[in-house]
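It would be a great kindness if you could assist me with a short task in structural biology. Thank you for your consideration; the sequence and its tokens are set out here.
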Amino acid sequence: MKIINGKKIAAQILADLKKEIREKKLKPCLAVILVGDDPASCLYVQKKEQAAQKIGIEIRKYNLSKQTSEKKILEIIELLNRDFQINGILVQLPLPKNISADRIIQAIRPDKDVDGFVKNSIFKSPFVLAVDRALQETGRDLIGKKAVVLVNFNIFGQSLKSQLKKLKFIKDFKKADIIITALGQPQIIKGEMIKPGAILIDGGMSKVDGKTVGDVDRESVKEKAKWLSPVPGGIGPITVAFLLRNVIKDVPQM
């Protein structure tokens, strides 16, 4: 089984972004809204913040309690929509069950929706871009390849299927050439579930006994899978890199 080195791919993207920010004297700023204290969400936000700071992107973070009302979150988004200093707005998912993720996400202006979720967004989803980049790393001809998608948010699945049109999306694991997962359910994908030679793109993240693991049981798939994007060090870093590339897309030069 070959490993897709997401850290290496992300490092090159981030190096290019840092150079662009420095040479163009850009002052990009990303607003991040985190509701509640979900461990995986906090980890995701921390990774984004660390990468942003390294390349010169300011982070304006809003840590809200899980009791925060939907109305209050919408008010914050409206303020950020009108703030010319904010180049991108990110609402970390999942949100508490009493809050409509769709209403919250769709309130973001299309030109600030760096996650690429809003209707008519000017951006492509960083997660989908990361999946596509990881698949390219395999060197395989992907046109018409059968893929299974397992995600915990419909918005991710919709983005994948609409933007990766070269793939044929199916539901049968045993027939899938590619399995893309972002469930956040530790090691749920086992070797007996997959087709020999499958490409596994693991976008899930969980904590088990203090250790970060993905949706794929790496040990059980290693004799059957051809390629794996591991957790940590796979899709996560690439997604963050593409997110930050979106942030600086339309930042005016000084």
Notes: The domain at 126-237 is CATH 3.40.50.720 (Rossmann fold). DSSP finds eight helices and eleven strands in the chain. The mean pLDDT is 94. Helices lie at 6-24, 39-55, 70-82, 101-106, 126-137, 154-163, 218-221, 235-247.
